[in-house]
Amino acid sequence: MKNLILIILTVFAINISAKDFNIMDFSRPDKYGWETFEKREKAVEDLSERQKLLQLYEMEKQDIYGNVIKSLVIPGWGQYHAKNYSKGQIFLGMETVMLLTSYYLYQQSMNKYDRYKQATQIDEINKLYDEAARPYRFAQTFLGAYLAILIYNCYDSVETTNDYNAKVWNRIENKSLKISVTPTGLTLRF
Question: 188: which residues sit within 8 A by CB, 6+ positions away?
């Protein structure tokens, strides 16, 4: 019973302190510069056209993370997908050369290492070990260069995709030349 009385008193206190609700104070259509219905209608049309442009953009834009993953799978694929073919070819070529060179030098090192394991004389053992170690170091250097290029390839894939998306937006926006009157003044879209 005490809870019911407390709830009734709370509702009564809220009703006493509440002001009358005025829809004009709440909505104030002139705060957006819509003194007339025509201005409001033009603003609504402009908003509708911008939403159509945004829908076109959303259909044509490319996903940054998707292009990065593509560049990780196949070097330069993200750049190819973003229509920057020369960068894609450069990354594909550089990463392929670095990886194949590293593999070739590693194989040379392993062949010489096998001969080192079979050697029996001290002078021959030292000589074969040095011969095996040198291509191995070069293989590691080329592998490091490959990894550095791969990381830069992923970074460049992000930049290339952003450039592509900016070009898509400019192309979509430039298709429709419109002059419209907005609450802030004249708007000219090319």
Answer: 178, 179
Question: 36-67 pLDDT, tens per residue?
Answer: 777 778 877 888 888 888 888 888 888 999 99
Examine residue 75 and state whether it is found in any structural domain, yes or no.
yes
Taking a C-beta distance cutoff of 8 angstroms, is the pair 135, 112 a contact?
yes
Q: DSSP letter for 119, please.
A: -
DSSP3 helix / strand / coil % (the chain, rounded to 5): 80, 5, 15
Residue 120 within a domain: yes
- pTM given for the model: 0.65
Whether residue 87 is contained in a domain is answered as: yes
User: Do residues 39 and 33 make contact, with C-beta atoms less than 8 angstroms apart?
Assistant: yes
What residue numbers bound the domain in which 106 lies? 62-165
Task: Record the tokens describing residue 55, joined without a space.
Answer: 């829908």
Domains in the chain: how many in total? 1
Is 66 inside any structural domain? yes
CB atoms within 10 A of CB 13: 10
CA dist., res. 153 & res. 88, Å (int): 9
Please tell me whether residue 189 adopts helix, strand or coil conformation.
strand
